[in-house]
Amino acid sequence: MRGFLPRLLAPDRLARTLIYAGIAGFIWFFFLQPSPFGTTLSVTTLVGAGLVQYGSGKPFVIPLYVYVLAALILVQLAGLALGVGGQVGAALLGGALGLGLPYLAYRLQEKA
């Protein structure tokens, strides 16, 4: 069982799973069950998960994804400021999940 858990929690695999879940969530929340919160959460999760690559050796950041995630959060802040219904909480939560879960898996794998 010890060999199964680290392979299951591999950071690159977890990030890829979050990206696929973000795509599926976007399709669900945009087309099938419209929800601005769910759509924003899905998109920012997939961008956050793609921001750091854990392929080989040390993880590295893709600068374009940093700008895209920052732009998504700023657009939600602007929507909130203009009173058109910005979903800042969903954007921050999605970014935190997309960035945090693979990084946590990386740190746990590093200690093992």
Automatic annotation (TrEMBL):
Taxonomic classification: Bacteria, Thermotogati, Deinococcota, Deinococci, Thermales
Transmembrane segments: 14-31, 37-55, 62-82, 88-106
Protein name as annotated: Uncharacterized protein
Domain of life, per lineage: Bacteria
Alphabetized UniProt keyword annotations: Membrane, Transmembrane, Transmembrane helix
